[in-house]
Amino acid sequence: MPPTKCKYWDKCFRNSEMHREQFLHPVDEDEEEDTGKAEGVKKKAAEAPKEKMGGASAVSKTPKKLVKMGGAPKAEEDDMDTTPVKDVKALKRKTHAMSQSDGEDEEDEPVAASPSKKAKSEDKDDEEAGPSVVKKVRLRCKYWDECYQTGQSHLKQYIHPGDYDAPEEDVEKKKTRGKTKTPLNEMKDGEAIDVDSARIKRSGDIYECTCPMWQKQKHDEEYRTCKHLQEYLGEEFENSRTDKPAKKKKAYIPQHISVSVLLAQKYDPKATNPVGWWMSEKLDGVRAFWNGRCFYSRLGNAFIAPEWFTKDLPTDMHLDGELFGGRGKFQSTVSIVKTPGDERWKKISYHVFDVPSLEKQPFEKRYEELQGYFDKAKPKYAVLCEQTKCTSKEHVEEELEKAIDLGGEGVMLREPKSKYERRRSPSLLKMKKFHDAEAVVIGHEKGKGRNQFVCGALRCRMECGKEFSVGSGLNDAQRRKPPKIGAIITYRFQEYTNSGSPRFPTFVGIRIDADGPKDVILPDKPSDD
After folding, report:
1. Can you tell me the distance from the alpha carbon of 241 to that of 207, in angstroms, rounded to the nearest whole number?
2. DSSP state letters, 208-254
3. Among 164, 207, 371, 513, who pairs with 115 as Cys (CB 3.0-4.6 Å)?
4. pLDDT (tens digit per residue) in 143-152
5. Are residues 233 and 296 in the same domain?
6. Which DSSP category does 157 fall into?
7. Between β-strands 139-140 and 158-159, what pairing exists: parallel, antiparallel or unpaired?
8. Is 263 exposed, middle or buried (0-12, 13-18, 19+ CB in 10 A)?
């Protein structure tokens, strides 16, 4: 079988006799034409300087003298190739690189374009054709150089070491879950990219995907993610991007605390000279203690007001006051303050008259602190109770008549320079024309006439055990749905009868800040003698 042409031709560096017999080289053709001429070429090549290929000498390090003839080294005396294996591999890589880059010899076999050149050419054509909104990209194989798959679909879909689009340096990044703000692959605003069988798109700060996993998520679009976004943008970036801000935890408000407030005694004109005392209107509302976070009743039960109602109240000062819905509106006020967050709180105002946190200071100093706070904060839903100094007993009577004419309950009297005592104290007095007391409901009496199908009166029991009925003061709604048995109610009366029952009792409302019935101790009537 005649020898065939060596595919490396004049670039061949093999010196073995077997290779020379199997393949033709330029020197072999010259020998057939003119042996003498070939010898001259050999001598000339031996005298020429050594040629370097990419910084590596083409001459072997063995003692055998090699000559370069037509670019192909050949042993003069020995046909065996004694070049070290390491040098042979290095020279082979250099030679292949030169043969691919030269392409000048027409006799060389055609060399297929490398994947790198082909890809660059395609990218160049794409750039010349104009920027495309959608482009196909390959993702980095997670197994990288340890991947064992050889399927064409896998190789086309993922990048491996040695591929034309493989990164120049493969630096293993430390895992910084939820801390990086730089995506693995940048996306421009409005750009769409095909990843596997899905298409991802960026619209401002929102990254969308057409896969079902992204579409089915119920939370906001800016916090959605899927496997395609995680693969292309990186898990660390996605964890950081979709990490929802932590919700601000609401401060814990206890539903019950221990409360001790200053309670008033009944005013007795014979025992107390009111001259110099401070007077204010007695409000028909719900007593409320503000601890800096929430309102509490006298019994320590919480009144949960809306945040907009309490936002202007101080957090570093305790207040004592009345949640007031207007004169004669005690029942509606009770209904509102018992409902947390009700919009009807807009009808309520908090009338402040003392500062329990300054209990050791005299009343004038405490009131001065309140004035300073109200002048600075100007709270929308809080009111400072006006205090007037009493000049005489007649002055007290005039203030009482004025309050009653306006629909109020009476007048409160506060001793000058008094401290805040957390008990029922003679330093705080209440003055009214009618008496208020508490009783427990023990039954419902059937009505008569037009009220025959509803409650006609409440059967109640006093603190002393005396039972009586109260029907006046109940409206139609309260008759249809009267206070439950066991409820504590407030009733108003003029005086006690000779048998000890209240005369002309009138229903005022359900008492939510009382835990039992409470009678009023009236002064003894003067005798007729």
Report:
1. 10
2. EE-SHHHHT--S-GGG---HHHHHHH-HHHHHHHT-PPPPPPPPP--
3. 164
4. 877 788 878 8
5. no
6. H
7. parallel
8. middle
Distance CA(13)–CA(94), nearest Å, equals 11
Q: Are residues 273 and 421 in the same domain?
A: yes
Q: Would 131 be classed as within a structural domain?
A: no
* Beta bridge mates, 5: 24
Q: Give catalytic residue positions.
A: 282
CA distances from 156 to 112, 118, 121, 153, 195 (A): 19, 15, 18, 5, 12
Q: What is the Cα 182 distance to its own chain's centre?
A: 22
CA-to-CA dists, residue 451 to 96, 309, 445, 475, 485, angstroms: 113, 40, 11, 11, 20
Cα gap 376→368, rounded to integer Å? 13
Question: How many CA atoms, within 13 angstroms, populate the side-chain half-sphere of residue 343?
Answer: 0
Cα–Cα distance for residue pair 430/267, rounded to 1 Å: 5
For residues 406 and 284, state if they share a domain: yes
* Number of domains, the chain: 4
| Burial of 426 from C-beta contacts in 10 A (0-12 / 13-18 / 19+) | middle
Q: Rg of the chain over CA atoms, in angstroms? A: 51
CB 129 within 8 A of CB 38: no
- The reply to whether 224 falls in a domain is yes
Least confident range of 50-64, 236-250, 294-308: 50-64
Residue 320 lies in a domain: yes
Tell me phi and psi for residue 76, to 5 degrees: -80, -40
CB atoms within 10 A of CB 341: 11
Rounded to whole angstroms, the Cα distance separating 25 from 10 reads 7
Contacts of 161 (CB under 8 A, 6+ apart): 144, 145, 170
Distance CA 68, CA 87 (A): 17
Tell me the two tokens of residue 171. 């630096």
- Do 409 and 452 reside in the same domain of the chain? no
Q: Give the DSSP H/E element, type plus range, for residue 52.
A: strand 52-53
Place of tokens 């057939």: 32
Query: Does residue 267 sit in helix, strand or coil?
Result: coil
CB-CB contact of 323 with 286 (8 Å): yes
Residue 277's alpha-carbon distances to 170, 311, 319, 415, in angstroms, are 87, 33, 21, 5
CB distance 166 to 226 below 8 Å? no
Tens digit of pLDDT for each residue in 225-265?
999 998 898 888 888 888 766 556 667 889 999 999 999 99
Q: Do both 426 and 301 map to the same domain? A: yes
Q: How many Cα neighbours within 13 Å face the side chain of 4? A: 5
**SS3 state of residue 33:** helix
**Distance between CA atoms of residues 160 and 139, nearest Å:** 9
31 sits in which H/E element: helix 26-33
Element (H, E) at 278: strand 278-282
Name the amino acid, one letter, at 74. K
Strands 66-69 and 286-290 come out as unpaired
Q: Are residues 202 and 267 in the same domain?
A: no
62-92 pLDDT tens trace: 444 433 444 444 444 444 445 555 555 555 5
